[in-house]
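Protein data sheet
==================
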Amino acid sequence: MLPGVLRDSEAAATVAKGCRRREMSHFTSEDEALLQSMLRQLLQSVKEKITGAPSVECAEEILLHLEETDENFHNYEFVKYLRQYIKNTVGPVIEEETEKYTSAQNQSEISGYDTLVQHLTKKTRESKEYREMMHALKNVMMVVVESLINKFEEDRMHNKELDSKTKKERQSGYFTDNCSDSDSSFNQSYAFMSQEQLQLLTERLDPIQPKEVRQEALQMLCFAPPSDILSSENWPNLRKHLTISLSDPDATFSEKILRFYAKTFSSSPFNMTREVYTSLARHLELYFLSGEHSLRISAGLDVSNTDINRLLKKVRLLNEYQKEAPSSWIRHPEKYMEDVVESTLSLLSVKHEPNHPACPDFLGPVYFLALLDIKAVWFKKWTHAYYSRRVVLRLLEKKYKSLINAAVQQCFDYFEFCKAEGNKSSKVSGFFHSQHCSEYLCDKQNFSYTGQELQYIYFVHSLCLLGRLLIYKEGQNLFPVQLKNRKDSVSITDMLVLFTQLIYYSPRYPKTALTAHTDSYSPEGLVMEILQVFCDQTGCVAECLYTDAVIDALLHPVQSLLSGTEVCINCLEATLFDVADILARITASEDGLSLLLYGENEKNSKDSPTAAHVIVQFTKKLLHDDLSLLSGSELLPVVKGAFIFICRQMYRTCEGLQMLIPYGLHESIAEAWRKTNLLSERVSTPVAGADSTSSISLESKNTLLWEETLLDALLNFSMTPRGLFLLHSTGAMNDCVNFMFSSLLKKIQTNEYEELGNQVIVTQMATTPMGAVALQSSGFIKALVTELWSLLECGKDDLRITQPKSAPVDPIDQSCQKSFLSLINLLTYPAVFELLSKQNMPNKPVYSFREVPSDVIDIIDRLIILNSEAKIHSLFSYEQSHIFGLRLLNVLCCELNTLLLLETQYKVSQVLLTAQEENVTEASEGPGVFIIDGLSVERNHILVRINLIGGPQERILPLRALDKGSDPYPWPMFSSFPLPKCYLAGIPRKAEFRQDNDLDKLLTLLKSPEKPTGWTENYRKQFCKVMKARSDSISGPVLAELIEKFVSHLSESRTDCYFSTGNYKAMEIDVKKESLSSVQQLGVEMTVRYGKYLNLLKEDAENGLCFVLMNCEKFLKQQQRTVVSSLCCLQERYAGYDWFASSIFLIMSGDRERTLTFLQQFSCLLVSAFLWLPRLHLSIHLPITTVEYGIHPVYFCSAHHIEMLLKAELPLVCSAFHMSGFTPSQICLQWITQCFWNYLDWSEICHYIAICILLGPDYQIYMCISVFRHLQQDILKHTEAQDLQVFLKEEALHGFRVSDYLDYMEKLEAIYRPMLLKDMRTIRVQNT
């Protein structure tokens, strides 16, 4: 906006400022004068030492050794000047030679005796810069010394004449002091000024003195050291004389005084310069108040006018000091700073009285300051530090609030002007017209400003000042302000709304609409800077921005386009882009996102659509090209991308996605991508010699860029479980993964936040079968495995080895930790099943050193199952690499389904036992002793883990570290089963059944033949009461009876039955023809072994469990559909073991008929879909598309809501997961799939199943949130240690009791149940 006007403004400041630059090798006349002054000061300080010398030779010797004898040597201005001069001249030479010396020393090119100091001294003295410096110094000092000698003689003769004249004037009564000509300081020495001389100088500067006397005195003042002047007792009177002389009609007076002031500002401390500053500010204030200044705004301003130019120089000197003072005033008393601040604010507040005829048109000092410092840099520096900001804002509030009122008024006046012009026509008249600006740019010598231009400059200054003021709490306290022409006061919200409206009401020029704001003074550019700063702040600043009024103002153009009303906005695309930029910044914060989703007051969000609804509706219209005003615009794709990015910020979160789901935005983006993809394929190949080659190339690039934008938008849906499910429905999964992988290869996302986002996306995708397959086909897994192998076995080729690599201290070297965690994130059971199912181990006879693994099966073959000498010899770092593989195996086996798969396909236990058997010492008699090393310790731990089922108090896992002392590893090793008994915890004692009134009431309710209305609710309340009081009583037969009777009752109610089930009668004679899979057989063995340990099963329990599993499979098969898919998990049988059915079998104490009956009745309830995962395998109750994705409702429903509640209830835990690149949904899916086996003790597993059945399926979600709450401190600690995934998968949930968190779960139920149950009930029609 107005580039010509404002650049001329800067030119005016430059004219006033003058040229200060010079080359250090050339001395000007000003430099010579300055050197004379400083040399006089030095001679004055050492006068006594020199005069006391017996001879000239001794005086020279004293001067030569002055640094050794004078402790103030380095404080002399002359010495400081020389030191800085030498540093500036030969400093670069020294730095260059230092770098050369260091480089040469590294290459052993410098001999040992040639030290750095000697080398630098020699090279510096030989340099051209040094010779030129010495020549220049010698010449200038000869001139200075000669001038001092000559000046001394001239002054002596001149002072005699002055003294005689003064004597005559004193005799005539003109003077009243007792100045003696014989004792005049001018006759004593030229090298310093005594108090008598300063007294005389002060008297001669009195305005009543003749002009010639004052001019000569001013000349002497300019050559005097400022420190002598300011520290003199005559300074107060001298300051008064100088202040009055500044108003002298003769310009030479003000020029010389300003020169003295400038020298004072640059060379004196703040405690002295503040008096000079306040003096100058007071002079200007009196000048503007005196009436001499009769300029009006409407008349404009001619900078070339002599009087105006002189005034500008004074204001410029003030402004320069304003910018420099904050760097030093903190070292002085606050009163000094307050004097400077108050004198400034008092000056800027000058205005005519209200009844003065020129009052509204008064060209006050603030206009001149704005002309020189249009962006109010002085105010920014003054408010940057709290030390000064507190004083500035306190004075503004108490005495000078009119300054703020005037600034606010100026902003409103400009807005009203723009609004009025916008209503007249789309083009802006007057000095806003682009043609006028171009003419102004051509006439660079024109230094005159019209009234409108001055008003605009003051508006920019006011805007920048207010933008800075409002980001501070103390600044916000100045609001509201009351303006004369407004009935209502102006609040902070009103100001932010005004700033926002300026974005689309201020003039624009389409040619540079979406480029960087080249004109840094354009209103929309300045407003954008202010609002961007607001968006980046937190606390009270953000609270001011996050209001419905501001959001409504931002969305005004969007709402107008949606409603079809007339839009009077210049360059609509640029406006929409700026609006989208601010909205995206708001959405990036938690509070801002909440505001867009729910509004300022969530209770009112139901009355009118919130900002999120408006934005997504507008984005859909953009994608469908339904906006006629924007159709055909070249900038339309950029605007689309900007609004898609806002939506992306919302649907990356669970709560945002939940609100956007009804709009089907994923389908709109996918449709746009498909169209763009077809278009990119149809771009014609350029013909040789054709003129359209460049345009086709540009079109192709733009199309590709738009396609990548859409793919990135689709990819970000996979940040959440439900979003990933929606991404599956678009059919763009493979393309999105390919795009992500190609972006990673190109190193496009270097931002840490984006990198963590990619890790989360990969983790989410690995939890689903289709996602894992897409990662495999894209080459992502191959790249991950290759990178791991290069770190583990090869090291980095680009590092030159200068010393042997140290042996790793940790089991997994730090360089491999990231790859280790990435593999853990990737290898969930769905991924492992798709990648390894029916895959044979390579087991090659020979492995080449150059043979690099490229798949997960290769990692297992080369690092885990080392069952041949060929595999061992193929590793450069056998022990380190094998430990890495064993640690990976240990984490994988924590997921019981993965353990069963690895054990049945690759006999992992036998491989480990064989390795242990071979790792023994040779003994002449009897068996050898196990060798205790890192590998044997790891194998021992894994063998115990994979062969024992149990919670934290039911099994004992050996440590993987050695103890100090005589027995470093007390845990017994073994090479065959059964395990040593020391790893089995004591058999838990059954709780003694004691009569309890609450339990009696619960059993009475259960056995009541009549079930009146409200019976279910009463039953649940009584159950909770018993759980809280005596949770140990809910176990064994009591628990079995409670859930059995309750499920039987619900299954008889049509309202409670969610699934329809056919009739099925178990027939043992039929099912005997069927056989269980190897995975199920091994699962049965593990279940029976665990049940026997718990004293729940008898010897023949294995057949009973097989009977249950086979009948369940046949029973559920009646409700399954046939699906043609390449996914391994969608082939006939359920991919995994039925841990829920096995749990019910244990609860029923091995009663197979009772278990099967319960499961049949249970299968018709909604809760069965979330507790019993095989229940919905290939189910006809789910939409065909849901079945084809291979994603279970537990993932896209339960796990999705777990992540959403976690962010609301435990934000620190949620952040810890994101920082780790891990997801709560993955670990929760693992817990739920295996019914918390190995993570909780059996009693707590029973309570988990009971609360989900009796209290509702949403308690599965509350249970997981409670677990995270229990683990919060551990999660934060392990996030810092960068092993959160390992901790959550390997460690049992120590100390967690369901009953302890039942109250907390009930609180969650009161808040979230309506939403959760509503969503859970939609799984049958989940094809959104």
The longest strand covers residues 301-302.
